[in-house]
Design a protein that fits this description.
Layout (H helix, E strand, L loop, with lengths): L2 H18 L6 H11 L3 H9 L3 H12 L4 H12 L13 H18 L27 E2 L1 E4 L5 E4 L5 E6 L2 E6 L2 E6 L8 E6 L3 E6 L5 E4 L3 E6 L6 E13 L7 E5 L4 E4 L3 E6 L6 E7 L2 E5 L2 E5 L3 E6 L2 E6 L2 H4 L1 H4 L1 E8 H12 L2 E4 L7 E7 L4 H10 L4 E5 L2 E5 L1
Parallel strand pairs: 1-8, 6-8, 11-12, 21-24
Antiparallel strand pairs: 2-3, 2-7, 4-5, 5-6, 7-10, 8-9, 9-11, 10-11, 11-14, 12-13, 13-16, 14-15, 15-18, 16-17, 18-19, 20-22, 23-24
Helix pairs in contact: 1-6, 4-6, 5-6
């Protein structure tokens, strides 16, 4: 497998992922993906059968099982890695382990046009022992709480119109909540949307602004933006794309930050169990306030709030936006910080049985893996050992 094929496999894998995540594709990307699809009936089958990220990953993993992908992956790593020894303080190849396992399936489609064989279940193999239930990654689920206190679960089963408030129709479809219609000029009433651990959701606000909520997050917002500002309150993490309005500033309030914008895209992380909260600007301009300090950001900058003080730095955009792209991404990250993100995503409690927490790790890994697949990749890269007991994950030396 030459470097060109590896790069092409990862490129196609990225495009499939973006499409499954409903991310916009450029004209060139769309054309490249269509060219790849037309290369064989098998590729067309994968494209038509996979409507979301999780089914896409399952499909490719099943295809992977037809080949010795582990050996192939090791060959890739050995041929591309300048080092063969693992360092405790550095996670050298999780990005390759996650992305190349994903991309290798695509490469096998580029290399071969074989059709998929029949699935072999545990029962077909004559196994009688019970199959351990996998802990799956987060899915689209949330709770909508209306101003009158009524709570509506949001998932695929609740598609359609859910309610009508202030002249607006609230509709839910395929993991997205939308407000549509004419806003009555009345005193503001507030709804909230809350994602549990193991959940995520997409919201389109009455002004057209878009919000993506990460796991274990909550957004409180008015049904109608009829005052001098568009103010929402956030706990947890969300990515915002704000509809421009020069006469009505958009305000995001967290327990220790106030972010003011007019029209821009940015990410806010304000989990209660994280020591430092941050705002990262992708486009436009925002002003971040905390305590008595105020900082204006330019695109590519990040403001970190801690104890009423603000520090600014150049942002690692790939790391900040990895969750929106379907990845965990770490850089000089300790095991506790890493596991807090894993805990929220898989809705598990983490128990440590360690005496040494000094390691720092970096790399990327898919958030669409089952927990057992995730921990296996961590272990293969020398990042501790793990045992699952119910919904507890034990971190072992």
């Amino acid at each position: 497998m030459d470097q060109h094929k590896i790069q092409y496999a990862l490129y196609i894998g990225e495009l499939l992922h973006k499409e499954a995540d409903k991310q916009p594709l450029t004209e060139k990307e769309r054309a490249d993906l269509e060219d790849w699809r037309q290369g064989s009936p098998r590729r067309m089958d994968i494209s038509s059968a996979t409507k979301d990220q999780r089914s896409l990953v399952r499909e490719l993993n099943q295809l992977n099982s037809q080949y010795d992908s582990e050996s192939a992956l090791q060959n890739i790593l050995q041929s591309t890695s300048p080092q063969t020894k693992k360092k405790k303080s550095s996670w050298l190849w999780p990005a390759a382990a996650a992305l190349l396992l994903f991309g290798f399936s695509i490469w096998m489609l580029v290399r071969k046009n074989n059709t998929r064989g029949p699935d072999i279940s545990a029962g077909q193999q004559g196994q009688t022992s019970p199959v351990k239930k996998e802990i799956e990654p987060a899915s689209n689920k949330a709770i909508l709480t209306l101003a009158n206190g009524k709570q509506i679960p949001l998932d695929s089963a609740s598609n359609g119109q859910l309610a009508q408030q202030n002249g607006l129709k609230i509709t839910n479809a395929n993991g997205q909540l939308t407000y549509q219609g004419y806003q009555n000029e009345t005193a503001p009433v507030y709804n909230s949307i809350t994602t549990p651990r193991g959940g995520q959701y997409h919201l389109v606000l009455p002004d057209g602004s878009k919000v993506w909520l990460n796991a274990a997050s909550s957004l409180k917002y008015p049904v109608s933006f009829t005052t001098g500002e568009r103010r929402v309150e956030l706990t947890g993490e969300a990515y915002f794309e704000i509809a421009p309005n020069s006469t009505q500033a958009f305000i995001v309030a967290t327990p220790d930050m106030r972010i003011a914008v007019l029209g821009t895209s940015f990410d806010v992380m304000a989990y209660a169990d994280e020591e430092r909260h941050h705002t990262t600007l992708l486009s436009g301009a925002v002003v971040v306030n905390s305590g008595t300090q105020s900082k204006q950001l330019s695109p590519g900058e990040q403001a970190v709030a801690n104890g009423g003080k603000i520090t600014t730095t150049t942002a690692d955009i790939d790391k900040v936006m990895a969750w929106r792209s379907g990845y965990f991404r770490f850089s000089n990250t300790d095991i506790r910080t890493l596991m807090r993100e894993v805990s929220r995503w898989y809705d598990i409690d983490v128990v440590y049985q360690l005496s040494d927490y000094s390691g720092e790790y970096g790399g990327s890994i898919s958030r669409n893996l089952n927990l057992s697949e995730l921990t296996r990749l961590l272990e293969q890269n020398g990042i501790h050992h793990y045992k699952v007991e119910g919904r507890k994950l034990l971190v072992l030396p």
